[in-house]
Amino acid sequence: MSDRAADEALRTTEGAGGPATKAGGTKAGGVAYAPHRRLDGGTGLRRLVSRANERLVVLGYRFASWLFGWLPMGLTWPVVRVLMLAGYALWPAKRRVILANASHILGRPIDDPAVRALARRVYQTYARYIVELMRLPSLPEHVPALLVRAEGERGVDSFVTIWDHYRAQGRGLIAVSIHIGSIETLVAAFAARGFPTYGLADDSAYPELFALLQAQRRRWGVEVFAWRNMRRVFGVLREPAILGLLVDWGYRPDGIPVRLFGGWTTLPAGPAVLAARTGGVILPMVCRRTPDGKFEAEHFTPIELADDSPGELARATQAMADAVEAMVRPAPEQWYTFKPMWPATAAEKAELAARHDAS
To answer: Poorest-confidence range of 71-80, 264-273, 320-329?
Structure first.
């Protein structure tokens, strides 16, 4: 792939709300997107404060990870759960976001008791996710693979057949998912089984924390690199390999319009653009927690694109939205949606519908 082609792909995914969304954009309603925080910007004092803040975050993460790995789950989870529920009660702005998302998922008014109950359950299950995430570094390298069940009609064993099929064609897989269950456990389990596994992440806010998490993921043979490294992205998909992307970063007006739980919103164009331009295949996947403390992995129908025309991008992205619904419905309390996933006004929804029809 030429440098010029990679740069063009980066501009396309940026403008379409893909994995590299431009900082400083504007949400509908006049709310500006916060640009990525960079430690190399601002005055000397600002850089010093940012550096000190990052160090506190890293030290806090290291301590919590050590503590949660040492203490039993039965002790740590109840404590974190209480703290999360306190945050739900004391942070009204974030609570409104969770309630609005829960309202769309259930198709009920925001003040419906079932909506409020789901919002509280999201906070409680997120507390468990935090504890499990912090405990991962203390677990032996082979444990994540044991936590994820391999059987099932669309489980890990079924995934092997799909992977072998497309690998024989020299085509990579773009594994798209959302913040549900434990994506870290899924990625670690796949890498432990020998699949070449990569992921994209934002490294601009806390580079030192990003590096720490990188080191932890390498224990399982997982490489996560910054979303700006588009040449690496294209190279991975042409190995071929598996590239993991999350698509639920919140509603962005410059994304591709889709219907999600009956309402108009957007999903990022990045996965569809990358698949069209590399010959890769989009494979929606999910890793949900089960009552016994383990996880079930499930894949959905592969999504292939003929080209990168607007109609093809819209079709593939709607197929991803349909898969997201299927991921969430069995366990909506496990979808940690802490950003608004739908537009707030009828005008925005109408504009998305019109854009969809035009494509």
So the answer is: 71-80
Beta strands in 37-114 (DSSP E): none
Q: What is the reported pLDDT for 88?
A: 92
Please tell me the total number of residues recorded for the chain in this structure: 359
Chain centroid, CA 73 distance in Å: 25
Q: What is the secondary structure of 282-344 as a DSSP string? A: EEEEEEEE-TTS-EEEEE---B--S---HHHHHHHHHHHHHHHHHHHTT-GGGB---S--S-S
Side chain identity at residue 55, one-letter code = R
- End-to-end CA distance of the chain, in Å? 28
* Residues 280 and 173 sit within 8 Å (Cβ to Cβ): yes
For the stretch 74-105, pLDDT in tens is 899 899 999 999 999 999 999 999 999 999 99
- What does the pLDDT read at residue 144? 79
298-318 pLDDT, tens digit each: 999 999 999 999 999 999 999
* 3-state SS assignment for residue 99: helix
CA-based angle 225:269:317, to the nearest 5?
A: 120
| The pLDDT of residue 121 | 96
The CA–CA distances, whole Å, from 345 to 87, 284, 304, 342 equal 27, 29, 33, 9
Residue 240: cis peptide before it, omega within 30 degrees of 0 = yes
Q: How many CB atoms lie within 10 A of CB 4?
A: 8
Q: Which residue would you say has higher pLDDT here, 46 or 172?
A: 172
| DSSP-derived secondary structure letter, 113 | H
